[in-house]
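[09:14] KT: can someone run the structure on this one? pasting the chain below
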Amino acid sequence: MSEKKYYTEYDSGIKAAALAEQIINDPDLPNLKSIIIGMWDEEIYDVNPDGIFAAIVANKDKFQHIESLFVGDMEQEENEVSWIHQGNYEELLKALPNLKTLKIKGSEGLSLGKVDHKCLEELVIITGGLPASVVNQIKAAQLPNLKKLVLYAGVEDYGGDCNPSDFAALAKKDMFPKLKYLGFVNSDKQDELVQIILDSDILPQLETVGISFGCLTDKGGQLILDGAPKLSELKKLRANFHYMSKDMVAKLKALPFEVEVDDPQNDEYMYPMITE
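[09:31] RB: done, structure tokens below
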């Protein structure tokens, strides 16, 4: 076994402190490479994972071999993404110097803190609304070996108070010299994010670009077509869940790299895939 998910359920009587003890004392822990933390308290609406983080930090010697961590792996029936109370990751990241992948779901109360992590290669943050404070923390972070960055922007109504210019400040080759996969996804301003990626100096080093799950229209599709000469090194464009026409989809599929354009939307009102 290399991966294990830890979680509780409603009416289980299990609190976050008990789940933390379960993780720390699990006989499987020495053989794990990946830990997934789902619903961490039966009263999940009111409890953040900071207590679990503190327990891991206090027992950090038991976690030095962990390479992947996903915090907040909950289905909609368990908790809406906008209702997930997240925590502060600063001390946790310090305690896990060999971590390569960090995936976070939920943004209420989320703080990365001051990040200086030489090993982290993948950062994915799934939200219905990404706070500008978190984007600013990523901008200030030291992540020299990051290869994949995916941010779910969401909408303002659910905490997404960042704007496209905030994302432009992240798409810099001097900030992420080893980045190969950049995803600015799940935005109600998806067309604008397409333009930001196309204008970035990091584009020539990217192998995969993600613009899925948002309000991507034919305007954004045309930007991609017009910017095709800039995409000569690209291997894959991911644009699943979109509001583009069949004609535009056909044109994108004709581009000289792999293009994913599944799950077209036909709703009169456009919303990203994940909001509440």
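[09:33] KT: thanks! The chain has a mean pLDDT of 95.
[09:34] RB: yep, looked fine to me
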